[in-house]
Amino acid sequence: MKKSFYLLLFVLIAFACSSDDNSGTTDDTTDDQQTTDDGPDPVEPPTKAPCENGVAGIYPCNDYDLFYRMALSTFAAGSGNDSWGWTDPNTGKEYAIMGLDNGTAFIDISLETPVYLGKLPTETTASSWRDVKVYNNHAFIVSEAGGHGMQVFDLTKLRDVDNPPVTFSRDALFSEFGSAHNIVINEDTGYAYAVGADNFSGGPLFINIQDPLNPVGEGGYAMDSYSHDAQVVTYNGPDTDYTGREILIGSNENEVVIVDITDKNNPQNISTISYGQVGYTHQGWFTEDQTHFILGDELDELDFGFNSRTLILNFTDLDNPFFVGDYFGPTTAIDHNGYVKGDLFYLANYTAGLRVLSTSDVATGTLSEVGFFDSFVDNDVASFDGAWNVYPYFESGKIVISDINGGLFIVQKKQ
Predict the structure, then answer these.
(1) Given this model, what pLDDT does residue 19 score?
(2) CA distances from 338 to 236, 348, 390, 400 (A)
(3) Measured between alpha carbons, how far is residue 72 from residues 75, 116, 404 in Å?
(4) Which end of the chain is less enclosed by CB atoms within 10 A, N or C?
């Protein structure tokens, strides 16, 4: 999220009532006689609720039930941000990981009533920006807090937590950078990539995490300048020139860059692509067959006034990517992070919550909404409130929504 668009201006307007002391009039209404009508008591948001007749309690929805909700107060936090997940390979238990302004929360969501296990505090100061990914039973956490570096946390400690919630300690710290906007991991190769950091011009830093508690820096790539977010894959798509190569797709503010980073000592730019009405090229994700890239622009709704826009790029030839089409959602909300699972694209759509789009016709430049859960009930306008991130990869089908204002939501497709 671009910092300059997070500055909020608050204006206090004072209303004063006065009377003319020389008027000779008096007000003989006592406090006991004064009555006010504040209207009905506010509706308490539900902890759990099925999606029925278009709502789950107070939350607008279509085909997705509210499995559980935890407010920010549960985590003693002021705001939420990123999220990810971990499935214990020994027990099959599922855990949600949620970024907060003051740390990272860990929640066991395998139980009918999820349990908040504890928090890993921020390494330095609080920050609205925190990002987390998982590799080999460890969480890797970065933040835009100054001097934060990359925290490493052993997730197997979640198996046996007495008297939760507890305050956790990190297990390692990588400090070859201070702040970073995001972290990307290629689980196939065991490399992490810090992007939007304070070196390599904000381009990706290469970090070998094959031994998670002993990360090793292996340089970086600055040739395409600042990367706001990225996806890194071991390529197995239709362009056989790059089969088996480690390919980075960077969302770089005003364009998308495609880079072969297999040789960490000699990264090679493959191509770049931009598009019309660029606001801020933010984040995207490959379709599972790696033929198309689904992209979000964080500021185009604000800059150009149209509804939520999601762009579709054809990546069948990595040397010559091209624009295929765009999808406009039903609201003016800003699109944020999105991920593909199967033939569905799960989008964190800020004030419009989670939107679920079918990618079955992506080759024709077509996406279609098949479900949603709106975690932010106040409005659907273009503002930086509501759903920051979603995590749709649990085997159980549970989906994590990390909401800036509302906390943690766990939703599930209606059975």
Answers:
(1) 36
(2) 21, 6, 7, 12
(3) 5, 11, 9
(4) C
First and final C-alpha spacing in the chain:
34
- Chain length of the chain: 415
Distance (Å, whole) CA 18 – CA 22: 12
| Token representation of residue 182 | 């995001």
Among residues 72, 171, 183, the alpha carbon closest in space to that of 123 is found at: 171
341: tokens are: 């699972």
Q: Give me the pLDDT at residue 25, please.
A: 35
Give 358's strand partners: 344, 368
Q: Which CATH number fits domain 2-21+47-413: 2.130.10.10, 3.30.70.260, 2.60.40.10, 3.40.50.1580?
A: 2.130.10.10
| Mean pLDDT of the 138-152 span | 98
pLDDT attached to residue 32: 33
pLDDT value at residue 4: 41
pLDDT digits over 63-111, tens only?
Answer: 999 999 999 999 999 999 999 999 999 999 999 999 999 999 999 999 9
Q: Which two tokens stand for residue 294?
A: 């689904």
This prediction's pTM: 0.90
Which tokens sit at 38? 């504040």
Separation between Cα atoms, residue 186 and residue 248, nearest integer Å:
10
Tokens standing for 228?
Answer: 């706001």
At 333-373, the pLDDT tens digits run: 999 999 999 999 999 999 999 999 999 999 999 999 999 99
3-state secondary structure labels for all residues of the chain: CCHHHCCCCCCCCCCCCCCCHHHCCCCCCCCCCCCCCCCCCCCCCCCCECCECCEECCEEEECEEEEEEECHHHHCCCCEEEEEEEECCCCCCEEEEEEECCEEEEEECCCCCCEEEEEEECCCCCCCCEEEEEECCEEEEEECCCCCCEEEEEHHHHHCCCCCCEECCCCEEECCCCCCCEEEEECCCCEEEEECCCCHHHCCEEEECCCCCCCEEEEECCCCCCCCEEEEEECCCCCHHHCCCEEEEEECECCEEEEECCCCCCCEEEEEECCCCCCCEEEEEECCCCCEEEEEECCHHHHHCCCCEEEEEECCCCCCCEEEEEEECCCCCCCCCEEEECCEEEEECECCCEEEEECCCHHHCCCEEEEEECCCCCCCCCCCCCEEEEECCCCCCCEEEEECCCEEEEEEECC
What was the pLDDT predicted at 136?
98
